[in-house]
Write a structure and sequence with these properties.
Blueprint: H1 3-25, H2 30-34, H3 38-48, H4 55-77, H5 88-96, H6 99-120, H7 124-129, H8 137-168, H9 188-207, H10 217-240, H11 244-250
């Protein structure tokens, strides 16, 4: 059985498990709970395809593992793994849909599509696995870029965490964060998250002599999902905080950029 087949059957099993858990618990964040874990599994399966002897794929797997550790830690401290730790946006969407329609949405989008996306964003490792290019300076450059974006996301998460702790204590100046990295991007954590997967995809694309652009599909879909998620989150913020509109006018949505006056 090839590594692609192994990962496909892992995907099928995870889809079945997260769907059944959502039905049994009436919570719909089970894919969120494995979001930082399953891609790490997929990456090490690809590394296993070379008996862990391919330095490029091993390095990719190590970097994605660090990504997974960071995201798991951040998700856990926000209560994501606790009973009732469902993403608040799913509850809002449930109010906008009939129960039957929401169950269709749960199966097709939350379970199948999102799990498929988690597999797709790791597929560039399979492309790298069959590359004939030797490990060299290009790999180091991409690895440094990935790690830099990982640090950026860690910092953005910490700034957001610190802000919400102040907010709980009633010490926050506003209802939303606009300091630190959030002064140059409204979603610096989203930017860094997407950036890491773009680095991985372009890394494999480059060492494969820019062949088979189909391996970019996953990261393109990931970007589309993040853009949609950011817009939905901002609609909620606008409903709570009228001054958020002024923040939108001054600060770039994703790409860190100079703040307009």
């Amino acid at each position: 059985m090839s590594v692609l087949e192994i990962n496909f059957w892992i995907f099928v099993g995870v889809c079945a498990l997260t769907w059944l858990l959502s039905l049994a618990t009436k919570e719909y964040s089970w894919v969120d709970r494995i979001w930082s874990i399953i891609p790490v599994v997929y990456m090490w399966v690809f590394a296993f395809g070379a008996n862990f002897s391919d330095p490029r794929v091993n390095l990719m797997a190590i970097l994605v593992t660090l990504w997974g550790i960071r995201l798991t830690f951040n998700f856990a401290r926000k209560g994501g793994y606790a009973p009732g730790g469902e993403d608040y946006r799913w509850a809002i969407l449930r109010k906008k849909m009939s129960p039957a329609l929401y169950q269709v949405f749960n199966l097709l989008f939350i379970v199948i599509f999102q799990n498929a996306l988690l597999l797709l964003i790791t597929l560039p490792a399979n492309q790298a696995l069959y590359s004939s290019a030797s490990f060299g300076s290009l790999d180091i450059i991409f690895a440094v870029l990935f790690f830099g974006l990982l640090l950026m996301e860690f910092l953005a998460d910490q700034q957001q965490w610190n802000f919400h702790q102040l907010k709980k204590q009633g010490r926050a100046e506003k209802g939303f964060i606009d300091k630190g990295l959030f002064s140059v991007s409204r979603h610096p954590n989203f930017f860094a998250e997407q950036g890491q997967w773009w680095v991985l995809a372009l890394w494999a694309f480059a060492v494969a002599n820019f062949s088979e652009p189909k391996y970019l599909i996953g990261v393109i879909l990931l970007t589309a999902i993040f853009l949609g998620s950011a817009r939905f989150t901002e609609q909620i913020s606008l409903g709570k905080y009228p001054e958020y509109k002024e923040y939108q006018a001054k600060v770039s949505m994703m790409i860190p950029w100079f703040r307009s006056k």
